[in-house]
Amino acid sequence: MSANGSMTNGKYALELQDVHCYYGSFRAVKGVNLKLEEKKITAFIGPSGCGKSTVLRALNRMNDLIPGGRVEGRILFRGKNLYDNDVDPVEVRRRIGMVFQKPNPFPKSIYENIVWGAKINGYKGNLDELVEQSLRSAALWEEVKDKLDQSGLGLSGGQQQRLCIARAIATQPEIILMDEPCSALDPIATLKIEDLMRELVKNYTIVIVTHNMQQAARASDYTAYYLMDKSDRAGELVEYGVTDQLFTNPKDKRTEDYITGRFG
């Protein structure tokens, strides 16, 4: 549901229905209902501890890997609840890839970084072509094409993050999740990632968690604002809508207060 009721393409990439996220007995996020637009960039914003990264990780079952982590409610992808018993979480993570806050290349060559996940997933195509295509998609090919056998750890921070994006692309996902992908990068590298996102969204749905409100305003089509409910310390979705509308004319006073810097 976009805030103004306008549908850009009539399709949703993911639908969250009354989603609650727990760590042990602690409910970290409560009652999130959200429909994420296909082939659009959605930004999750809000102060620290409001649950935005928890919701992001719930979208590809990364919370399953945390002891005591569990999700209640339904997250629908292609009409199927990702948390049904017959759903393979490894396949979920292939189709819904993730890029983390700190660039985390494998201690392998640039080439092996790209093909590793594809090989695990049984990729049968031409690996050389996959490497070039993935690196081109991540706007990195021209910078590394002559050093594919060198370690990915030898790249700059911004290049490492684009390598991680290329690695995610190589498994041929439909959705790419990004958890503060620019927080460890300088402003020039940050703008490169933002430009890259605008290219990638032609083919992928992107969901990004960011603390940088200028980044959300610049780079996203839709924005979801989360806030921690002080009564029970659970994060909740306060407002969701078209980014321009949410930043210029928010419907909820709490959203306005956060965007204008009155708190958070």
Summarize the model shown.
The protein has helices spanning 52-58, 89-95, 110-120, 127-137, 141-144, 157-170, 187-200, 213-219, 243-248, 253-259; strands at 12-23, 26-37, 41-45, 69-77, 80-81, 96-99, 175-179, 205-209, 222-229, 234-242. The protein is an alpha/beta fold and 264 residues long.
Descriptors:
264 residues, alpha/beta, 27% strand, 6-stranded mixed sheet, Rossmann fold
How is this structure best described in words?
The structure is a single chain. The chain is an alpha/beta fold and 264 residues long. It has helices spanning 52-58, 89-95, 110-120, 127-137, 141-144, 157-170, 187-200, 213-219, 243-248, 253-259, and strands at residues 12-23, 26-37, 41-45, 69-77, 80-81, 96-99, 175-179, 205-209, 222-229, 234-242. It has a domain at 12-87 and 96-103 and 175-259: P-loop containing nucleotide triphosphate hydrolases (Rossmann fold, 3-Layer(aba) Sandwich). It is built from 10 helices and 10 strands. The strands form 2 sheets. Strands 6-7-8-3-9-10 form a 6-stranded mixed sheet, with helices on both faces. It has a 4-stranded antiparallel sheet with strand order 2-1-4-5, with helices on one face. β1 (12-23) and β2 form a beta hairpin. α6 (157-170) packs parallel to α7. The relative contact order is 0.19. Residues 1-9 have low confidence and may be disordered.
Spatial separation of the terminal alpha carbons: 26 Å
Could you tell me the strand content as a percent range? 25-35%
User: What is the count of β-strands?
Assistant: 10
Q: Main β-sheet: number of strands, strand sense, barrel status?
A: 6 strands, mixed
CATH topology-level name of the domain at 12-87 and 96-103 and 175-259: Rossmann fold
CATH superfamily of the domain at 12-87 and 96-103 and 175-259: P-loop containing nucleotide triphosphate hydrolases
Question: Could you spell the SSE succession in H and E letters?
Answer: EEEHEEHEHHHHEHEHEEHH
Low-confidence stretches: 1-9
- Please give the radius of gyration in angstroms: 18 Å
State the secondary-structure class.
alpha/beta
Averaged pLDDT: 93
Bulk shape: globular
CATH class (first level) name of the domain at 12-87 and 96-103 and 175-259:
Alpha Beta
Q: What is the helix tally? A: 10
The assigned CATH architecture of the domain at 12-87 and 96-103 and 175-259 is 3-Layer(aba) Sandwich
Helix content: 25-40%
Strand order of the largest sheet: 6-7-8-3-9-10
